[in-house]
Amino acid sequence: MLQRTILRASRQQAARQIRPFAPPRQPLNVTRATATPAIRWYSDAPPAAKEGEAGEKKEEEAPAANSEAVQLKEQLGKKDKEIVDLKDKYLRSVADFRNLQERTKREIQGAKDFAIQRFARDLVESVDNLDRALGTVPEDKLKGDNTDLIALHDGLKMTDSILINTLKKHGLERFDPSDVGEKFDPNIHEAVFQAPQPDKEDGICFHTQQKGFKLNGRVLRPAKVGVVKNA
Fold it and tell me: Where is the composition biased (Low complexity) (predicted)?
């Protein structure tokens, strides 16, 4: 027993002398706790395949965007043309409506002014007869003792003046070119004959064969006159 105990002690001592030369073992828990964590580096650049796909997508999206812009421009151009056409039509319609209003107003006024034109044409013949009746009485007989003739003449003259004033209120006027020595105007006069008059210049109306009439400024019947021609 003693030998065995001595042998064990010698072995243990030999083992203790050999252990310092062996690399010391670290406990498992210590290595895990104190070990430096591994650092991983990640690349920011996408993979080569993905870059190609993104470029293709951009190239596909660019023509699509351009085509949409072109379509929008075409639509805007069409709308602008429609606006211009509608504005032109609107202005034309407004101008046509205003012209229609003015034309209608003139036609209505003309209808009012010349509604009695046919009646006036028939009436001027009676006025002419009354004027001829006044002209058939010589002036020397109106100065005599024939009171009946003088009264009749005065009555006819008064009737003629009242009738002319009444017709004038409705736009019918009688004019005598020879009273004022008017210049011959083919628009309102009708030359019946020409005769020399040394004391008057050429083209003057010196004699009125039939008096003229105007209805609201328009010639209803031209005056028949004699015109001076000295040459």
Answer: 8-17
**Which residues form the domain of 168?**
114-228
The residues, any chain, with a CB within 8 Å of residue 121's CB and separated by 6 or more, are 220, 221
Q: What is the pTM of this model?
A: 0.55
Residue 31 in any domain: the answer is no
Identify whether 22 is part of a domain: no
CATH number for the domain that contains residue 129 = 2.30.22.10
CB-based contact 193:226 (threshold 8 Å): yes
Question: Is 197 inside any structural domain?
Answer: yes
In total, how many domains does the chain have? Answer: 1
Rg (the chain; Cα; Å): 65
Whose tokens are 């993104």? That residue is 54
pLDDT in tens, the chain (231 residues): 556 666 676 676 655 654 544 445 544 444 444 445 555 655 555 555 555 555 555 656 667 677 888 888 888 888 899 999 999 999 999 999 999 999 999 888 888 877 888 888 888 988 998 888 888 888 888 887 888 888 888 998 999 999 999 999 988 999 999 888 889 999 999 999 999 988 888 999 999 999 999 998 899 999 999 999 987
